[in-house]
Amino acid sequence: MPGMWLKVLGTGTSVPSLHRGSSSYLLTAGGRKVLIDVGPSVVRRLLETGFTTRDVDVIILTHFHVDHTADLSTFLFASNYDVEPRTRDLTIVGGPGIDMFYNGLRAVYPWILPKSYNLSLIEMDEGTEEVGGLTVRTTPVSHNSESIGVRIEDVKSITFSGDTDYSINLVKLASQTDLLITECSFPERKVKGHLNLATLQKIVEEAHPGRVLISHLYPEWENFRGVLHAPYLLAEDGLEVEV
Ligand SMILES: [Zn+2]
Ligand SMILES: [Zn+2]
What we know:
Bound molecules: zinc ion
Strand content: 25-35%
CATH topology: Metallo-beta-lactamase, Chain A
Largest sheet: 7 strands, mixed
Number of helices: 6
Radius of gyration: 17 Å
Structural class: alpha/beta
Number of domains: 1
CATH architecture: 4-Layer Sandwich
Shape: globular
Order of helices and strands: EEEHEHHEHEEEEEHEHEEE
Distance between the termini: 12 Å
Strand order of the largest sheet: 6-5-4-3-2-1-14
Number of strands: 14
Helix content: 10-25%
């Protein structure tokens, strides 16, 4: 039985980059396709991967910053006006305020209101929900008031940090997870609300994930000359990981 398959769609940040799209990951698990974060240009990246917005069952937003959500309206607009309109149900999961966020988008873009499919919004904070047959666990992390870390379990488990500073909640969420996909915005510089290698190391020592994929990379990473040893892997756009 196949496990989980992850395609990295974007490893970048708010800084425009030619080779790093903004944050997004496509996870295939239990026959479902889950998009984690929908940063700018992700809809196009989906096409490059051989998928369309119609293939996605669930969208999970780790928080509402633009580099994680800008293409949500593009996604929803395409769901109505692509060559083939969407018919598959869509679930959007987000932290506290997801209704307000979605209604805000709908107020400026009334054309995103679903025309041919059912849309459900699920607000999660600290808790577990069954979403599309997958177990989704979330916990608040240290970034914005709505920021959540996300753990998805099927045959294996995969945990997304979202943007965060050191967070004991994230340590608990990522405990013994098979794959931790984590932000590590800067290799050395410490910026409030984000991780560097030293603070990430503390999380990894406490949570013992099987593998760690480092993402959400600011330009300082391009000059990083250190060597990363297992369990670390440095993410690149287009990377595929089997879990
Ligand atoms: Zn970000
Ligand atoms: Zn952020």
